[in-house]
């Protein structure tokens, strides 16, 4: 597990990983296209899971002279992450908190969706682990909405991690009062691949997808779409101005995740947020200390 230091810049403590769990194997990236098998029994917490994936398929490294060594390193990275994720899940379950990992590409609208969500909930019972490469802009905005926010800036000597992992999330938990919360959102770093490869101990995965990104993204970047429990199709207010077919997008999505729930929303206008909040109510552990939205 990496070491962190903290500094206070006036907006609260920010974390910067010094020695990450990961070894940067291609520039400062990670292997892509890993299979994640997971199931959710909605409406209740799950037992502490087995590691989210055995990560047996770590890609074709036969072109590298150190292929077998690379595979061993990758397996160790994922095993260590999964071990920490299980500890995170145990802490969430012990506190009676449901955790939703919110993922998307940059600019898809995660923060705007969460801001709208906080306005529809009892925000004082909501925590947010905010992942950004730099700045506290999104964290400050969500804190202003009444949530308890723990910020993780991932900037480091490699220019910034492209996702949150389980050890980062575990460190961020030190500043969240889990016993006083019902729901925690992990707003992951904007990236269409890497966040889906690392379990953080979450119970549910929500993906925010903007219609401005194109119809074919589930086919081109299937990992995140495949791992999501719900896809929020955002920026629907722009559909009249785009050459975009929702039917075609749903066809691509069904090929990689036929069971996923989809909710059409516009974070700008608020359309669809009620349906999203209703989904949260349906899939949040019961009993809650205080009903969401009360």
Automatic annotation (TrEMBL):
Bias (Basic and acidic residues): 1-60
Keyword annotations of the record: GTP-binding, Hydrolase, Metal-binding, Nickel, Nucleotide-binding, Zinc
Region (Disordered): 1-65
Signal peptide range: none
Pfam family, one: cobW
Superkingdom of origin organism: Bacteria
Molecular function terms from GO: GTP binding; GTPase activity; nickel cation binding; zinc ion binding
Occurrences of domain CobW/HypB/UreG nucleotide-binding (ranges): 99-262
GO biological process terms held by the UniProt record: protein maturation
NCBIfam families: hypB
Family per similarity comment: Belongs to the SIMIBI class G3E GTPase family. HypB/HupM subfamily.
Annotated protein name in UniProt: Hydrogenase accessory protein HypB
């Amino acid at each position: 597990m990496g070491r962190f230091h903290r500094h206070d810049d006036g907006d609260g403590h920010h974390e910067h990983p010094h020695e990450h769990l990961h070894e940067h194997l291609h520039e400062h990236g990670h292997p892509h296209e890993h299979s994640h098998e997971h199931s959710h029994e909605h409406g209740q917490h799950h037992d502490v899971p087995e590691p989210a994936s055995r990560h047996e398929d770590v890609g074709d490294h036969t072109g590298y002279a150190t292929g077998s060594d690379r595979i061993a390193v990758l397996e160790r990275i994922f095993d260590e992450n999964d071990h920490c994720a299980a500890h995170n899940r145990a802490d969430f379950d012990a506190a009676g908190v449901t955790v939703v990992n919110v993922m998307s590409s940059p600019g898809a609208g995660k923060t705007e969706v969460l801001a709208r969500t906080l306005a529809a909930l009892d925000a004082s019972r909501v925590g947010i682990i905010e992942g950004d490469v730099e700045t506290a802009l999104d964290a400050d905005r969500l804190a202003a909405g009444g949530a308890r926010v723990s910020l993780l800036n991932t900037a480091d000597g490699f220019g910034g991690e492209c996702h949150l992992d389980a050890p980062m999330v575990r460190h961020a938990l030190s500043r969240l009062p889990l016993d006083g919360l019902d729901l925690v959102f992990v707003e992951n770093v904007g990236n269409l691949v890497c966040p889906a490869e690392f379990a953080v101990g979450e119970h549910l995965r929500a993906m925010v997808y903007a219609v401005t990104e194109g119809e074919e993204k589930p086919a081109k970047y299937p990992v995140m779409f495949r791992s999501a429990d719900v896809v929020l199709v955002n920026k629907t207010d722009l559909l009249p101005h785009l050459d975009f077919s929702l039917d075609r997008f749903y066809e691509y999505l069904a090929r990689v995740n036929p069971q996923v729930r989809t909710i059409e929303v516009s974070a700008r206008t608020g359309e669809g947020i009620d349906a999203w909040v209703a989904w949260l109510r349906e899939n949040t552990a019961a009993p809650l200390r205080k009903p969401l939205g009360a």
